[in-house]
Design a protein that fits this description.
single chain, 208 residues, mainly alpha, 7 helices
């Protein structure tokens, strides 16, 4: 569906983007807490299960958040008028542009002296470039097989979430942190999200 900036559909789409980012933040925080617990207390099946679910949810919500931003840029909820492989390749190109821009922005901020005082290792960001071939494709496929769908491939080595984390977490974290700032990364109070924050309210009021 096509829409214009500041029309009623755009306003609802922005609410959906904010909600999706907050879901991304929630799953990341759950992962961070659970993974920290494993670092301190050791591996257990229960902790690994919770961390896996949280991180796969983080991948799902981060990917959906990024694609929703591009939908707004293009004024089209479908983002691009393509199908199948052509659509996947177009979306992959957009995500690869996102992460290349984010890493380069970090480098530029350090070079200009605008980075926070604790962030002065420009070599770290140079080592992240060039973005690995297949980053966006792998991100999309992990979103599908591990986060989005019930798929047997989840248990194949191709979709090993530990290996994906080791290879790609620095990129995912930068996307989450840098692109998400405007949409609520530092938000302490949940904003009014219409149907989301009104959930169950009518039932509770009727029982009062």
């Amino acid at each position: 569906m096509k829409f214009d900036t500041n029309d009623p559909v755009d306003a609802l789409h922005c609410l959906a983007i904010k909600h999706e980012y907050l879901r991304c933040r929630d799953t990341f925080e759950l992962f961070r807490i659970t993974a920290t617990g494993m670092v301190l207390s050791g591996h257990s099946k229960h902790a690994a299960y919770r961390a896996y679910n949280a991180y796969s949810g983080f991948i799902l919500h981060l990917y959906e958040f990024l694609i929703a931003l591009h939908a707004r840029d293009y004024g089209n909820t479908d983002v691009v008028q393509l199908k199948g492989k052509a659509r996947n390749e177009a979306l992959d190109a957009l995500v690869n542009e996102d992460i290349a821009r984010v890493v380069q922005n970090r480098i530029d901020q350090i070079n200009r002296g605008h980075a926070p005082s604790h962030e002065n290792s420009i070599d770290y960001y140079y080592r992240l470039l060039p973005i690995p071939d297949g980053f966006a494709q792998g991100f999309r496929r992990m979103r599908n097989k591990v986060g989005g769908h019930v798929a047997y491939e989840r248990f194949e080595e191709t979709y090993n979430l530990t290996a994906f984390y080791q290879a790609n977490h620095p990129y995912l974290y930068l996307l989450y942190r840098d692109i998400g700032d405007y949409w609520g990364r530092h938000c302490e109070e949940i904003p009014d999200l219409s149907n989301v924050t009104n959930f169950f309210k009518t039932i509770l009021n009727s029982e009062a």
